[in-house]
Task: inverse folding
């Protein structure tokens, strides 16, 4: 017997959990805790007491939770408070009971929808049949320190046995056998009704040896083996990657099965050459460069044969005056896109910027069906890391809502806008060169095409982004209101942004960029834009279009140098009213230059382009003026289109702004599934209506299908 007394205990601890790449289901976490307990010990050594614990959890890597459209991430840190009672009781001379029950409250800094209040408990009953052996039975319900990426928290429920052996006064051995169920609260697949409650069943065996050389010093060593099984329907991400690769090739084969082998051969060839370059020692620079040139050369020869062979033969025939037979070659869909993506990959492999070597990830990166037909031009650094994240293959209702919104806006751009202006452009550009055309009709057709190509191409890009989001993969944005640009430099930062990035990083910069003087800069600009024009199609009109933009860019750079050097112009640009006027004039002049260049882009020949330009500026005006009854609706339609293109917010500004915020607010509430389900239902209804509208009238194929 002892004299009853009060016992005060305080402790501080830190848990740091770092997961390997294979454990991306879990976040890394650092948990700092402080605990204090006060208990009353009886004469028999039994005790009952009160304890409290304060815990602060921090995550080294912010979680991409706020929106599936951007890389904006949030700090998922939390504070946890626990208060409870502890009972330590010797039931008999050979049995001992320890019980603890707590009320726990967890509050997140930026995710109040994950806040949790509940109860945890743990009971341990130890039996000591002899002086050297013990057997402990454990029953627990606890909050796990493992934070599932898309769950509010993880609740642990389970039981275990712990046999022990007091080998010597200084050495103890024990083993733990545990069976635990981890239940993931607020699992997205559960919210979608795809898996029900997600539970992971964990079976673990551990062994521990303790050595106490003195009464105050102890050393422990342990081994742990753990197995996990889950009822999650989307746990095997490698199978999902393989499924997407297969689906992408089937999608491509639907157009022309023969060329599926071409795509597969291109993927295998470039992946193999990339690995060969990676395997070369750093001191074998010539061999590495030779392999790169060989691989890129094969890619360009393949592209040249299918896309430019007839163009080359036609040019030679025209220059020599001798007819040459054309090759019967069908252009493989998307060959320009999957060729450029792989050239960029090979160049980065040679530069030592690539560490990803997973063949499935590479195959999916090249063949990923939402982009394969008409872009955007993907980059391995922004796509392949996504494919390695198992969590993206777990559907989220937010992704469905926002992805369908992109799909809806893109479809509306194509069906309601681009296709409505297509007949006006076709009437002009598909007419014989000798046909009588009035200046007003020429302007009408050119302006209609200016709107058609923007809403057609940006509509496809929006649809590709939306379709990919339904899967959980983010594609890069390809447009940022290009007709709101105030210069040609600004235009190319907004138009077909992924192609602009490729031309800049893999052509303009390797040529020297602007590092070798102004003359060399302009030469590099012209080479880049001429080849960029030729990439679009096998025709001199595309080369002229690229050359015009090269000239525009050179003038733009010279103007900027002049503006920066002339103090008066700089001061005028700084004033409010003049700045607004200057911006409006700059937008108008930029758009005018773009419109003129589009004539060559759309025309079937240089002769046709010059004929249309001459007609537009009344040099060759002929034919009757458009009838007023026809002209007014057309004028209003074009005016509305340019108002949308030059003043309205673009798709990502609308969706990634107000809509994404609304979706997050809905997801944070208790009525998440019903509300987001209503949003998704409304979007599906709108898409169905647009499909009916499209089916009721003639539609045109996407313009960039031809590139």
Result:
């Amino acid at each position: 017997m002892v004299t009853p007394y009060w016992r005060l205990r305080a402790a501080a601890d830190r848990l740091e959990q770092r997961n390997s790449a294979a454990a991306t289901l879990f976040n890394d976490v650092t948990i700092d805790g402080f605990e204090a307990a006060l208990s009353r010990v009886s004469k028999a050594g039994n005790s009952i007491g009160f304890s409290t614990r304060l815990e602060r959890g921090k995550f080294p890597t912010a979680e991409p939770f706020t929106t599936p459209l951007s890389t904006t991430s949030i700090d998922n840190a939390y504070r946890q408070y626990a208060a409870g009672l502890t009972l330590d009781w010797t039931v008999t001379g050979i049995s001992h009971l320890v019980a603890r029950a707590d009320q726990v409250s967890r509050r997140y800094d930026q995710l109040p929808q994950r806040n949790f209040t509940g109860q945890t408990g743990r009971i341990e009953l130890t039996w000591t049949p002899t002086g050297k052996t013990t057997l402990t039975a454990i029953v627990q319900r606890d909050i796990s320190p493992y934070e599932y990426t898309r769950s509010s928290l993880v609740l642990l429920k389970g039981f275990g046995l712990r046999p022990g052996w007091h080998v010597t006064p200084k050495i103890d051995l024990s083993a733990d056998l545990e069976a635990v169920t981890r239940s993931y609260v607020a699992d997205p697949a559960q919210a979608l009704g795809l898996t029900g409650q997600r539970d992971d069943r964990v079976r673990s065996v551990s062994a521990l040896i303790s050595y106490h050389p003195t009464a105050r010093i102890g050393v422990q060593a342990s081994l742990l083996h753990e197995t996990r099984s889950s009822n999650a329907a989307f746990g095997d991400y490698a199978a999902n990657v393989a499924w997407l690769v297969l689906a992408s090739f089937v999608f491509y084969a639907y157009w022309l099965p023969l060329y599926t082998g071409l795509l597969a051969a291109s993927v295998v060839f470039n992946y193999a050459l990339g690995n060969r370059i990676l395997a070369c020692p750093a001191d074998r620079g010539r061999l590495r460069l030779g392999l790169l040139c060989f691989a890129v050369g094969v890619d360009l020869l393949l592209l040249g044969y299918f896309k430019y062979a007839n163009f080359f033969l036609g040019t030679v025939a025209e220059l020599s005056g001798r007819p040459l037979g054309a090759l019967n070659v069908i252009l493989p869909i998307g060959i320009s896109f999957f060729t450029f993506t792989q050239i960029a990959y090979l160049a980065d492999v040679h530069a030592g910027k690539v560490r990803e070597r997973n063949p499935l990830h590479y195959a999916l990166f090249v063949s990923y069906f939402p982009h394969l037909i008409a872009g955007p031009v993907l980059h391995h650094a922004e796509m392949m890391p996504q494919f390695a994240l198992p969590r993206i293959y777990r559907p989220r209702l937010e992704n469905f809502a926002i992805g369908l919104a992109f799909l809806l806006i893109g479809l509306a751009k194509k069906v309601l806008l681009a296709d409505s202006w297509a007949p006006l452009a076709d009437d002009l550009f598909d007419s014989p060169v000798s046909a009588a055309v009035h200046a007003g009709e020429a302007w009408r057709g050119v302006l209609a095409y200016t709107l058609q190509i923007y809403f057609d191409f940006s509509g496809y890009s929006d649809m590709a982004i939306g379709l990919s989001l339904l899967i959980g993969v983010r594609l890069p944005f390809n447009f940022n209101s290009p007709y709101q640009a105030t210069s040609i430099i600004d235009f190319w930062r907004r138009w077909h942004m992924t192609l602009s990035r490729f031309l800049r990083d893999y052509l303009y910069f390797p040529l020297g960029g602007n590092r070798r003087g102004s003359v060399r800069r302009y030469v590099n600009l012209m080479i880049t834009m001429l080849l960029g024009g030729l990439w679009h199609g096998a025709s001199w009109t595309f080369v002229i279009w690229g050359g015009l933009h090269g000239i525009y860019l050179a003038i733009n750079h010279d103007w900027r140098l002049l503006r920066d050097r002339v103090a008066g112009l700089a001061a005028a640009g700084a004033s409010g009213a003049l700045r607004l006027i200057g911006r409006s004039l700059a937008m108008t002049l930029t758009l005018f230059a773009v419109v003129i260049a589009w004539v060559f882009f759309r025309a079937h020949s240089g002769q046709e382009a010059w004929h249309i330009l001459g007609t537009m500026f009344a040099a060759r005006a002929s034919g009757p003026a458009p009838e007023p009854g026809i002209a007014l609706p057309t004028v209003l339609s074009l005016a509305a289109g340019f108002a949308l293109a030059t003043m309205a917010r673009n798709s990502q500004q609308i969706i990634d702004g107000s809509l994404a915020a609304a979706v997050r607010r809905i997801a944070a509430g208790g009525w998440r599934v019903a509300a987001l389900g209503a949003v998704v239902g409304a979007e599906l209804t709108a898409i169905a209506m647009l499909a009916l509208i499209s089916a009721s009238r003639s539609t045109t194929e996407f313009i960039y299908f031809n590139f």
Observations:
- The two ends are 91 Å apart (CA to CA).
